[in-house]
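Me: I keep going back and forth on a fold encoding question. No explanation is needed for now; the record alone will do.

Assistant:
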Amino acid sequence: MRFDFRKPASLFFTSMFAARLADQFLLFVVPLVVYQTTQSVSLSGLAYAAETLPRVLFYPVCGVLSDRYSPLRLMQLSQIGRAVICVLGLIGFVLFDGLGWVVGISAICGLLTTQGFMAREVLLPQIFASARFEKIQSVSQSVNQASIVLGPLLAATLFAISNWQAVVVVAAVLFAIAELSMMIWRHFNQTPISATDENPSWIGPFKTAFSHLISLPGLKRVIALTASVNLVFGITLATSAAMVTGLHGQSEEHYALLQTVGAAFTIIVLMLVGASRLSVGRIGLISFAGVFLGGVLTAISPDYWLYMVGFAVVLGFDGMFNIYIRTVRQKIIPARDYGKTTGVIILFNNMTQPIAGLLVGLTGSLAQTSWLILVFSLVMLVSGLVLSLPRFNVRAAE
């Protein structure tokens, strides 16, 4: 699927790209700064947990808000808010100093990133109602991964010639560009966008969401599968800075190269998925197997280059698994309750990521971290076998 940048759809994805690129700047700089400052893999893992936990915990609330208010307005507030937080955080660092400012900026921006993500999830089916949803998700994931390709590379370049403050400044500018692109897109876009549920109650939406989790066929199984995949994905991200610069003794540039290769491989995978005629079920099965194999490779790799292969495979097939999971959710969950239900689902799905960071924080050495990655990969495999992924996939594809 190709987009002309003079057309509204391309402006929408340009806004998404700029915001995701800025978010990658912040995600890149935190574990690296913490590890370089403290030389502690435990503190690096705890910093990862600190910046990801707020994002995860607020998914249900952001999901309810995305159903209740205009998702477009929420996306705009998210982008403006993140730019403001970056500026205020830098001012705080200048006045009071301390490593906590960079973690705080990323953590607070993470809350707004969650709101922007949930609003976009509700917005996409409204904007592209006539398109094949797997195709739209493939484009969305490709844009997301393109930002991951450039994010670490640009952030590493800035970090090498300046400091983390410069990385945050550029992130703030990118958030502003994202909002400007969104404003221009809205000027041309004629699709009506509205809230799907204007019920003012806070208890009712959560009751509805949990009712769907319990009663909708296949939803509990797909939640459990995603949580197991995110366990491997989370520990891979939480330990990557320490594994590259510590265990394998490489530089910050090699860390940036790792992130870039991983994202580039993900784009290739997503392009192949978008061009293929694979059923949703096949996409789920192949991607699940790929994440497992990548996790094992990162755990057992004796050098940086084999670790890079494993890391890239984890990222690439996790992106593919995201297409599967979002397509299945969109088919199962009623449109009226999509935001509130998806928010609760993502809370359960993504809790394994900060948990992975906390467990890394309890490890005493990088050697123990490698064993932990291997154990998580085996837990994922057992979960997939127990939950009978092939049987679910066949049913989901029908």
